[in-house]
Amino acid sequence: MARATYDLSDDRPEDGGHLLRHEHPAGEGPPDGGRRVDGIARLHLSLPARPDMTRIQDLLGSAEAAWLGERTQEAPDSTREYACDLDLPVGDMGPLLFRKSAIVGLGDPAHDGAAWHVPIEWHAATFKPLFPVFAGTLTVTEHQVVLDGHYAPPGGRLGAVLDVALLNVAARGTGRWFLRKVVAALVD
Question: 32-56 burial, b for 16+ CB within 10 Å, e for fewer?
Answer without folding.
Answer: eeeeeeebbbbbebeeebebeeeeb
